Amino acid sequence: MKIELQNSFITDNTQEIVKNCYFLKCDFNAKFWEEAQNLGANLINLKEVKELLNINENIKIVGITGTNGKTTTAAAIYSTLLDLGKKVFLCGTRGAFANDNRIDKKSLTTPHPIKLLSYLQIATREKCEFFVMEVSSHSISQNRIEDLNFYLKIFTNLSQDHLDFHQNLASYYATKSSFFMDESLKLINKDDENIKFNYKNSYTYGIKNQATFKILAYSLKPNIDSILKFKDNEIILESPLIGEFNLYNILAAFCAVRLLTKNSDNEISKALSNFAGVKGRVEVVSEDPLIVVDFAHTPDGIEKVLNTLKNHKLIVVFGAGGDRDKTKRPLMAKICEKFAYKIIVTSDNPRSEDPKKIIDDILKGFEDPSRVLTEIDRKMAIKMAINLAKNQECVVILGKGDEEYQEINGVKYPFSDQIIVKEILENAN
């Protein structure tokens, strides 16, 4: 992409170079430096770009990382800060937003450096005090977050994911831990033992273990109602969200805003209670029959969602993404089998893989195939599930959340679980 200047532009793509333009020089694109120079570009580092774009270095950058919960926690922090009258930029899986206006569509969880710089330029122009972003393990490993001065770093949790990239859990955990080894302000989930971090300037939060911010008591029925202890204060934390995993997300958001602002506990709690959640995260798209759509695509994520809905008789529709960690596929099956009355295994984003082979990998994880149906066509699979829901069963559609496409052999075809559900229900009436 390009960042336009008055008489030139900055790019990170050698194919866009014209003589005397600027080429962003960073670790992420080191192999292209020489080519860019030979093509006549002026190499410019991240610090120099920030100066050229007049980026405000006093914006407080908040980075959130973990296997699950990044998107909801980031959105909750963003929503709460806005309700408190702050100016805020948010970027992550759902796209980019500035002061409640969408700036960019969905893209990578953590964008490439030049995109982040363009966002920081907008945040500066919009006079944002805070810049809240999701930080993926890929971006840490590839140093796509080079030269970002994080004011606060937040850890949500760790479980199996991305082993196609990291090869093993030890490498994945080490990558995440490396983000927390400096002396910046940190907020760590004390109930997750998989993370290592520098204790200096660290605060912790938890439900089960002693922590700086500790939940003393809570109820999850029908929604989140809890009592939080911080220092000598007890604070009521209420939320319309459901599930223990969302209690962690809400707790992390409260703690973050408490560390970022001078607002009172009650002001923060009240603002946070207005956060209604994120599209595609335990999203109820129909109440009769009850149909829930969720982004969960890891064994741990699926378990959290299905455990939250376990009081219902569950019909689960799920698949697994192609060209990604294959070892988690049978594990996802085992979790679904533990909670579901009926399971339909289908296609997710097969990418360059054969969808049938992905389904075959998933099927290896089931002990009782009698409860399992397969249907490669995701729309047909959803229709099958809805047709089966005749006796108050809850249909849970996992894996894509609020995605609006299905990626097959390099092409992104329009596809939304929510829209498909509504079409099927309308045609049935």
From TrEMBL:
Q: Where is this motif: Meso-diaminopimelate recognition motif?
A: 348-351
Q: Which cofactor does it need?
A: Mg(2+)
Q: Which residues form the Mur ligase C-terminal domain?
A: 280-401
- For the ligand (ATP), the binding residues are G66, T67, N68, G69, K70, T71, T72
Q: Write out the residues that bind meso-2,6-diaminopimelate.
A: R324, D348, N349, P350, R351, G399, E403
- Kindly state which reaction or reactions the protein catalyses: UDP-N-acetyl-alpha-D-muramoyl-L-alanyl-D-glutamate + meso-2,6-diaminopimelate + ATP = UDP-N-acetyl-alpha-D-muramoyl-L-alanyl-gamma-D-glutamyl-meso-2,6-diaminopimelate + ADP + phosphate + H(+)
Q: Which GO terms fall under biological process for this protein? A: cell division; cell wall organization; peptidoglycan biosynthetic process; regulation of cell shape
PTM (free text) = Carboxylation is probably crucial for Mg(2+) binding and, consequently, for the gamma-phosphate positioning of ATP.
Q: Where are the N6-carboxylysine modifications?
A: K176
Q: Keywords on this record? A: ATP-binding, Cell cycle, Cell division, Cell shape, Cell wall biogenesis/degradation, Cytoplasm, Ligase, Magnesium, Nucleotide-binding, Peptidoglycan synthesis
Q: Which family does it belong to?
A: Belongs to the MurCDEF family. MurE subfamily.
Q: What is this protein called?
A: UDP-N-acetylmuramoyl-L-alanyl-D-glutamate--2,6-diaminopimelate ligase
